[in-house]
């Protein structure tokens, strides 16, 4: 039904209701007035009712038509829609989570919503009539506000991040949109600002940035942030003609702490060390954890090497006090590499690289000390690159050789086995020992190929000796630490045995103690698989690693090789004598053979024999040599 009809109907019904009420009352009065002539009164009343109804109908049509004619129907409809829209807008205005502020052209606040009060902490009456400048944080410059009003004047709109102040005084970030409102004539009437509180977003942004640039365990800057800071420090040092120093620190034998006391204590140690570093250094020094047990210290003002060395010494001295961790007293040393700007490096990455090279030098020099970067280290690095390049060609050009060193039974002096040792017959450098190229081969990944080749050659040679009637109990081959954990090793050994046809019982693999302790679980599994092939296993350089006796007991190993470092001082050095004695006793108690290497004198062989050591190897028996030069018949006798 149209609005005008509804309006007419409403007017007609109102009229009818009032008329009926009046007639009811007048009927009562009439009946008492025309006393005795009720009929006449009734007639009078009925006609009045009829007239009232007719009038109501007339009123309905008149009003409806009239409103229609005047166009009031549309007007009324509009008005109703507007009221509806206003009601909706008011609901949105009040329910929205964004704060809304309306100000007039004078900048006086005329309206705010509920979210505004929640965000700012102000009540409506505290802000109405006042200027929005009351919320200023002082965070932005005059230029900022000028740009904002400029945009409002030009395009009628501005949006951006703005820092304002709550009633509590707290400064917080808002994302705000301000729009100029104009009337139908285009005259500016109001400004509406809609804003949301983005402090939570800012906080998580901040947290993410922190996570990306810090080490979660110690909360120290990570490598990314350190490099960034080093770049800034170098730029500033260049301008102010200052020097900077980068110290790279590595905790000595940290793995031992992890292995013996557990990772939890290891983590605590790293945290405690980071705290100790923090306590040692103030502003102007950036500390960082680069990963594992590697830390770095960047001193932004360190004019000379003497100061850098003093910093390193301070760190070493700071470690003299043991750490108290979970009821354990842990004492740990560190090795430190130092590189300086501008004398050693011109860029942040070079500074880090050189400090790393110096750290390597400090570790090789026996740890618990510091080393300075020198030009020589670059020369070394250069040589390493060249060697790697040449080594690749050496394999193709068949420049590698296998030498064999005899192993004798100490009790009978009989030659019972040989150890295969690789050599590089370099066209210019002559015979290169493995210590000069094995580490490079390990780093470049060529070691797998080299070890496989040596193993193949050794097995072929053993088969040939057997065919010639030479009786040997074993041929020993070294396996690189890098290869030991890899699953390919098993396939490689199986393949070589298959290709050469050597009885697996004659092949002995030497694995260093550190390879076993790097990841003992993987090592154990690998050893069991290798044992299934029927070969023998020996632990090389025993005594130099940090074997846990418990783990050692579980390993399916047939032999311990006493490192030559303990043989060198025999029989006079008391420590070496005691250690050798213990290793022999240990091996015997676990049912393993003991094999001493590096025997250069008869007295050493005598002492070892007296202790119950089974086998001996060393220059006194014979140097490593080509297969053709081995002397099967003459063995030196222990007197
Ligand atoms: P290693 O397995 O402990 O081998 C024993 C080393 O001691 C050999 O050095 C040997 O020449 C040396 N040696 C033997 N007797 C004496 C002695 O009486 N006095 C002294 N001063 N030294 C003695 P080499 O051949 O230079 O090998 C060094 C290391 O290189 C080996 O130590 C082994 O770890 C590694 N290596 C050698 N050949 C291979 C190989 O084919 N593959 C792998 N992965 N490593 C190898
Ligand atoms: Mg060996
Ligand atoms: Mg050895």
Would you spell out the secondary-structure blueprint of this structure?
Elements: H1 3-33, H2 38-70, H3 72-95, E1 99-104, E2 109-112, H4 114-120, H5 124-127, H6 142-155, E3 157-165, E4 171-182, E5 188-197, H7 199-213, H8 223-240, E6 244-251, H9 254-261, H10 263-280, E7 285-291, E8 294-299, H11 305-318, E9 323-325, E10 328-330, E11 334-341, H12 348-364, E12 369-372, H13 375-396, E13 400-409, E14 415-426, E15 430-432, H14 434-444, H15 447-468, E16 474-479, H16 481-484, H17 488-500, E17 507-512, H18 513-518, H19 520-532, E18 536-542, H20 549-554, E19 559-562, H21 564-567, H22 574-589, E20 593-596, H23 602-611, E21 615-616
Parallel strand pairs: 11-12, 14-16, 16-17, 17-18, 18-19, 19-20, 20-21
Antiparallel strand pairs: 1-2, 1-5, 3-4, 4-5, 6-8, 6-11, 7-8, 9-10, 13-14, 13-21, 14-15
Helix pairs in contact: 1-2, 9-10, 13-14, 15-17
Bound molecules: ligand C2E and magnesium ion (2 copies).
Summarize it.
It contains 23 helices and 21 strands. The protein is α/β, with parallel strands linked by helices. The longest helix has about 35 residues, at about 40-70.
Structure description:
- With 639 residues, this protein is of the alpha/beta class.
- The protein is built from 23 helices and 21 strands.
- An eight-stranded mixed β-barrel has the order 13-14-16-17-18-19-20-21, surrounded by four helices. A five-stranded antiparallel beta sheet has the order 2-1-5-4-3, sandwiched between helices.
- Strand 3 and strand 4 (171-182) form a beta hairpin.
- Helix 9 packs across helix 10 (263-280), helix 13 (375-396) packs across helix 14 and helix 15 packs parallel to helix 17.
- The radius of gyration is 48 Å and the shape is elongated.
- The mean pLDDT is 87.
- The chain binds ligand C2E and magnesium ion (2 copies).
């Amino acid at each position: 039904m149209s609005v005008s009809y509804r309006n007419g109907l409403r007017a007609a019904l109102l009229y009818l209701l009032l008329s009926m009420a009046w007639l009811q009352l007048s009927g009562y009065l009439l009946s008492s007035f025309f006393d005795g002539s009720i009929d006449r009164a009734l007639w009078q009343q009925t006609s009045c009712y009829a007239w009232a109804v007719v009038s109501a109908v007339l009123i309905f049509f008149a009003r409806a038509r009239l409103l229609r004619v005047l166009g009031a129907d549309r007007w009324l409809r509009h008005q109703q829609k507007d009221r509806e829209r206003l009601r909706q807008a008011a609901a949105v205005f009040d329910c929205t989570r964004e704060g809304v502020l309306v100000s007039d052209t004078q900048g006086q606040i005329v309206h705010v919503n509920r979210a505004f009060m929640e965000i700012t902490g102000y009540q409506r009456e505290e802000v109405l009539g006042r200027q929005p400048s009351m919320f200023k944080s002082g965070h932005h410059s005059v230029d900022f506000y000028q740009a904002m009003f400029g945009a409002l004047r030009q395009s009628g709109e501005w949006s951006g991040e703005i820092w304002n102040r709550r009633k509590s005084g707290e400064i917080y970030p808002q994302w705000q949109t301000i729009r100029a409102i104009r009337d139908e004539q285009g005259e500016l009437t109001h400004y509406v600002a809609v804003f949301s509180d983005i402090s939570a977003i800012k906080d998580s942004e901040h947290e993410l940035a922190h996570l990306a640039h810090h080490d979660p365990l110690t909360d120290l800057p990570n490598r990314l942030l350190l490099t960034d800071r080093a770049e800034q420090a170098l730029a500033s040092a260049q301008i102010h003609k200052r020097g900077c120093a980068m110290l790279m620190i590595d905790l000595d034998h940290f793995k031992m702490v992890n292995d013996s006391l557990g990772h939890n204590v290891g983590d605590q140690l790293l945290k405690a060390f980071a705290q100790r570093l923090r306590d040692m250094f103030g502003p102007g020094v950036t500390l960082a954890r680069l990963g594992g047990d590697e830390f770095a210290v960047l001193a932004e003002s360190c004019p000379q090497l003497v100061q850098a060395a003093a910093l390193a010494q301070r760190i070493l001295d700071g470690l003299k006090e043991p750490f108290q961790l979970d009821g354990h007293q842990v004492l740990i040393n560190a090795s430190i590499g130092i590189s300086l700007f501008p004398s050693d490096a011109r860029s942040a990455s070079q500074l880090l690289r050189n400090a790393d090279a110096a750290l390597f030098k400090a570790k090789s020099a026996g740890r618990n000390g510091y080393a300075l970067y020198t030009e020589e280290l670059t020369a070394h690095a250069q040589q390493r690159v060249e060697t790697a390049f040449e080594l690749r060609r050496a394999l193709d050009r068949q420049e590698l050789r296998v030498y064999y060193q005899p192993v004798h039974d100490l009790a009978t002096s009989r030659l019972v086995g040989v150890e295969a040792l690789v050599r590089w017959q370099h066209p210019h450098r002559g015979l290169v020992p493995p210590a000069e190229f094995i580490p490079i081969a390990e780093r470049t990944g060529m070691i797998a190929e080299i070890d496989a080749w040596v193993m193949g050659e050794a097995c072929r040679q053993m088969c040939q000796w057997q065919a010639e009637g030479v009786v040997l109990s074993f041929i020993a081959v070294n396996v690189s630490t890098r290869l030991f954990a890899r699953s390919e090793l098993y396939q490689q050994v199986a393949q070589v045995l298959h290709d050469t046809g050597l009885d697996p019982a004659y092949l002995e693999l030497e694995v260093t103690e550190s390879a076993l302790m790097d990841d003992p679980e993987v090592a154990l599994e690998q050893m069991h698989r290798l044992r299934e092939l029927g070969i023998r296993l020996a632990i090389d350089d025993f005594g130099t690693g940090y074997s846990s006796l418990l783990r050692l007991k579980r390993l399916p190993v047939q032999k311990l090789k006493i490192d030559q470092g303990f043989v060198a001082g025999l029989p006079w050095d008391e420590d070496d004598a005691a250690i050798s004695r213990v290793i022999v006793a240990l091996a015997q108690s676990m049912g393993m053979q003991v094999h001493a290497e590096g025997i250069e004198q008869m007295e050493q062989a005598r002492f070892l024999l007296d202790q119950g050591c089974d086998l001996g190897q060393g220059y006194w028996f014979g140097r490593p040599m080509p297969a053709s030069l081995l002397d099967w018949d003459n063995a030196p006798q222990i007197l």
